[in-house]
């Protein structure tokens, strides 16, 4: 899809998409409880962050709530830069009030006075619509002084624009960017929950995480746990693209198998699927029985389908070109490593890569996973390594004897 394409993808699902919940029920329920009770409900739901890393949301909120500071922040990560991901765009556009609710609930839970939406540069066209929603919520009393009618809870939401750098979706690079610096990841610890935006306790949460938190506060943790698996509860949005008949944004209970997902989208004849976008693993058809969950085949939401005619080395080339461009260059394993992996793909394509060289490059990829400073360099070799591992029959035929 064109990066500036404003048409909304087809959407299908049943928890977030067709919820039948009266607007602001989650916020009203949250404000009728103590902060500790709200955090306990989110913890009890088992909700894990929907931005990719899968960190338990209730634990994150609890750490920020416990931090001692007069100023705390909620940051909504709306940078959505992973290739093949466009589910947050649907929430930002069509579920804007639900997102505001989620941000306000998070603010109440941790004791923040400000929520900041860090909006992907390419989503600038949504800015006016979100600002208008914020303005209306002020009028309705859900934002501002005594927000939602809760005495002493003063909370506002602002939008800040990103500028199109993928690495700025990494939470500490995002905070650097918010502060006006170059968007480069920080060393951790300290973690944002203690030392985040302007040195204050900050939670960074994905758009979908915050919308889901609002749903949980509306319908309860026990309801949420009726969907999904024991250790990966609830439902999840997936952005489905590539060689399938019905691409779009889908919502499924966590734990659906790759095959069942592909059947839903008309991609069951595929030879492979990238579960987790360019930074995830590429799964071959023989492994389509895997479940899409944090414990088996994890994803922040991007599923790219590859049909029978795809050349998997072209796929590796395409993903690695992206990472070479998007590496912030701060650490050597990622800055040099991605270029070396891309060179190896060119050598393989030209039939000039020996077995010994390929083994050296695989070793380099594993070193990048261990030694890179942030998730970009730690995950960028995943697609390359899984393609080499799973599509040997395509690749080895092109190697010199
Ligand atoms: C290179 C890189 C890009 C990322 N981009 C995003 C993004 O666009 N949106 C997002 O929510 N998380 C992104 N993340 C993950 C964030 O660092 C962070 O884990 C997430 O925002 C936490 O929210 P959650 O706990 O609700 O998932 C990215 C991570 C890395 C390493
Ligand atoms: S891993 Fe890559 S993106 Fe992350 S800090 Fe190092 S060079 Fe920058």
Summarize the structure.
This protein is 42% helix and 13% strand. The chain has 401 residues and is α/β, with parallel strands linked by helices.
Strand order of the largest sheet: 1-7-6-10-8-9
Q: What is the gyration radius calculated from CA atoms?
A: 21 Å
Shape type = globular
Quaternary structure type: single chain
Backbone structural class: alpha/beta
- Strand segment count: 10
Question: Regions with pLDDT < 50 over 5+ consecutive residues?
Answer: none
The N- to C-terminal Cα distance equals 40 Å
Number of helical segments with 4 or more residues: 16
The major sheet is characterized as: 6 strands, mixed
Assess the beta-strand content as a share of residues: 5-15%
Averaged pLDDT, please?
93
SSE arrangement, N to C: EHHHEHHEHEHEHHEEHEEEHHHHHH
User: What is the percent of helical residues?
Assistant: 40-55%
Bound molecules: flavin mononucleotide, iron/sulfur cluster
